[in-house]
Design brief:
About 30% of the residues lie in helices and about 45% in strands. It is elongated, with a radius of gyration of 17 Å. The N and C termini lie far apart (about 60 Å).
Length: about 80
């Protein structure tokens, strides 16, 4: 009986304000047969620290977080504080 645990980023979504929602799946297999799959989500706001993120997530963030998106995000945050 061999157990194998695999963690993969299986979904990346860009939301309206430029946030990136990342879903990670943890798959447990026993002798090649999946016995469990669980999910974890986290959201990266525009300009967030990308340390520890996968190359795919970093690439999408770099392509998505243009100067305009970052400016709009800062304006949105300022409106919340007002």
């Amino acid at each position: 009986m061999a157990l194998n645990k695999t963690i993969v980023v299986d979904r990346i979504e860009v939301l309206e304000m430029g946030q990136i929602q990342v879903r990670t799946a943890t798959v447990i297999e026993e002798d090649g047969t999946q016995i469990s799959r669980t999910f974890h989500r986290h959201v990266l706001n525009p300009g967030a620290d990308l340390t520890g993120e996968t190359e795919r997530v970093t690439g999408i963030a770099n392509a998505t977080w243009t100067a305009e998106v970052l400016s709009n995000w800062e304006a949105f945050l300022a409106s919340l504080e007002a």
